[in-house]
Amino acid sequence: MFKSSLELNPTMDLNYSVHQLAPDEDGLYAQASGSGSTSENFKVVVRIRPPLPRELRGTGLRAYQCTTAVEPGDRNIILSENLLAAVNQQGSLMVDAGALYNTYRFTFDYVYDQHSPQDRVYRQSAQQVVLSILQGYNAAIIAYGQTGTGKTFTMEGAMEGPDRGIIPRTVEDIFTYIVNDPEPSSKYLVRSSYLQIYNEVVSDLLKPERSPLAIREDRRKGVYVEGLSEWVVRSPAEVYQLMQRGQALRATGATKLNEVSSRSHAVCVIIVEKCTTPGEGAGGEAGAASAASSAGGAPPWARSSTASAAAGEVSVPTIQSIK
Q1: Which segments are annotated as binding site?
Q2: Is the pLDDT confidence value at 27 over 70?
Q3: Is this structure's pTM higher than 0.85?
Q4: Looking at the DSSP assignment, which residues form a beta bridge with residue 112?
């Protein structure tokens, strides 16, 4: 479907709406270049989902009772069998609460209550991780929890609107960054993969055959899945099409909490490669050589490009930086 080489230029029309950043605006490009970054490499956050309608109705023996509260500062979560007695009017845990009721207090990098919107969760806990990819670092965002706790809603949610999850917002930020890259010599190649881990068997959700894949480790590649297909994508819409195709093949099963609960672990992989040619302008000779080499179907950094002023002169190899 998208199995072809592609060169993304920051000035090309991607046929989707992106936010064009002003030159002096503190936007995605400034953040990904180091502004506002933190030195923390690992974060753990907790999100509390709102109760379902059937949970609010309760059962014949016991009415619904909220057992979680987030303290001011959004870093501490309180679990108690009697929140009214354990938490004071300011929302903090009282000192002697544990003597009367089973009450626990845990601290994380951030805690989101049941009213936290998708946009807040992404911007405070995921966006900086995504922007670090554009600096050349590997990054991973993992949602963990039992069935019915809202992992799929947090990671995927809707593909448009305010309920978009982390993956759609990640894809949007990546392509927005590409469109607003001020370097005229920058060229991008974006690829996506979608795999499933079910009963300890790894399989490709974007291939018709369901053969198991092996996890390998290489000095150059690091840890990778052998035989996993990679699809070149030109816009967020193409990433969503791949995800929808893969979700139709995921193993699901009914549980007491969710009728279509996923019985497998799904991993969405996005690979962004950036090629920069120092000293190359938008209309320079090196730029013309790169355009000529990419016209043959291969990405411009697949091999060394050359530039010559006239026929018969010795070609000079162009130095390219790949991130």
Answers
A1: 145-152
A2: no
A3: no
A4: 47
